[in-house]
Request: fold
Amino acid sequence: MDNIFNAQFIRQNEDLGTVCPVFRKIFWADKKVRKATLSVSALGFYEVHINNQKIGKFVFAPGWTSYRTRLQYQNYNVTKYLEECNTIDIAVGTGRRRHNRKDEELPFLKADEIAVIAALTVEYEDDTIEVITTDKTWECMKSNILYSDIYNGEKVDFTVECEDKFTVKEVPLDKRILIETEGEETREMARLDAAELITTPKGEKVIDFKQEITGYVEWVVPARKGATFMLQHAEFLDKDGNFYTENLRSAKCEIEVTSNGVEQIYKPHFSFQGFRYIKLIGFNDDEIKLENFTAVVVFSDMKRTGFFACGHEDVQQLYENIVWGQRGNFLDIPTDCPQRDERMGWTGDAQVFARTASINYNTQKFFRKWLHDLAADQEENGAVGNVVPAGWYGGGSAAWGDAAIIVPYQMYLAYNDTKIIEEQWESMTNWLKFIETECSEKGRWDKGEHFGDWLSLDAGNEATGGFTDKNLIATAMYAYSTSLLIKMGKVIGKDVSYYEELYPVIVEQYRKNYLNTGKVEHETQTSNVLALYFNLTDDREREAKKLVKDIEECGHLKTGFVGTPYLLHVLTDIGRNDLAYKLLLKDTFPSWLYSVKMGATTMWERWDGMKPDRSFATPEMNSFNHYAYGAVGDWMFSTVAGIRPDETEPGYKHIIFEPRPNKELGYAKARILTKNGEIISSWEYKGEGNLCEFSFTIPDGSHATLYLDDEEYEFVSGTYTTEFEYNA
Ligand code: BGC
Reply:
């Protein structure tokens, strides 16, 4: 067991207000060191320096977990940093645990005082071992970080002297919650140069990075002693071209630094923002040089695995926006958004996007950690939190709590991960047990609080819950989750007979109460999509006709978070791939490409985030970096390029190729890196006619079935190219 378990949590004896403390230990290593390992964790975010050198690349360590029961610690090999006389400094900020939101809203994120725990194990060449652990012999100092919070920002004063020493106390926190890092480290993954300096009509000095990112700005603090400089962050300029922050709600997103007269490079320690623009306050004109500002992109260090390219500029931009949406919200946990006073692990959003996310990046480790938190936060009665970690905003809602089953299924499909099925089995079955208690009759989930088809357009733009009957969605999700549980249970050899008997009862309830009843709230695009995608209808043609009729009559999609991920799949499946393409390629409101046309560089939370006249939707709920509608990325890979995993041989052991060329796209090429190697599918129209060249690569250890022009072909690994008259 790591020596961290022999250390004590410590915190300062004095009240330092909002100032971030630094915990210090000085020690001598007077023999030759063979190896030194530092284990560290904190309540709050920490940053460690040994002899003034920053240790590790983990930004916002120790990460965000279900802190009541799980707190990650990190092990760093620090051998090369040790000298004869050593100073370990651990600065701690408020992090995710301490928080500016009201305590009663955040029972598990209560504004606890910060604390730190660490152990340095030094192995000397003479085979002796010395362990230095946090205890009351450490001392504490104030840092020059006067305030730091993920929502409001950070305030640093370089003129402050930090010499005073304070004593520390040991705090008897439960060390059993300590776990080794499970997730991917969040790191600085990319850097973007400042692209343009704008003076807005109001006279504001604004820098445009031309890309919305999550992270922070690294900048040069001018050498003007005592002067205070501020950076504010925003996603968009308003229709007059002025800086717009209203949609951040209560999050201030302000960085404030006071210069000590020495020019120095600064970036926030414990705060991040979601932004494309920054406003500069307190700078003289000659102190604003674009090369002094760099946007640092921070997200979980996952391996990139999916790549998509096509000959349609806007569709290509849409794909880039999907990937940026993922980068912006896969910050240790899957968050809804990175900018306003939320940034929470909303379970609904995560299940909606999990499939696409797992194509773009290898999310296996990322989601495994989060699913463990989901289970850890699950209530006694099986209810799954609407946000994980934290249990904020209650739990037990349809399509949100179903993340408990849908996300492990996606891990199984993408990576053939059966371990996650084993690990989550109890959580998954408990979730279904919970639903059972929410049914007035067996199989009909009609109790509880639900979000519905969140932000769909059928109930008018401002009604967030959409028009589709919430209980219809609940029963449909119940059927879907049960069907996935049966599949997964069989894979790991569980007795699923109970669920096999239950499943037809749920379907029957759905048919009896919600299918083809003639009630308008049962006949929405989303209700038809769910009936078809989840196989709940006894008359596919009837539901297909209704769906097509509605789309053709209004000329656009109306679906929200629940229906959107499946919409295009269903259209393709019912033989209306033409209509699916029409929706994908539509670029007026409402559509995916509408946001692209309006200058989006990430996915928008709502279809109408910005109106055609460039005014904004309600600032109460209007994020420009929400990945849910990016779920269409899955259709781009599986249908446009035509690469699908087969659930009976998952992890792309058996690949299904079924590309659907489209003239407006001209060409498409997708690559997915799998455990077996690289899969490629591409097609390109040759000249004006229908002649199209197809090419497929199947890695060693995989085999494939190709569906093309009503024919079926079997392939072993290799690369194959063919030309073909393709009639869309
Ligand atoms: C979040 C969503 C979330 C929703 C619940 C919002 O405030 O940003 O993405 O799923 O609440 O309906």
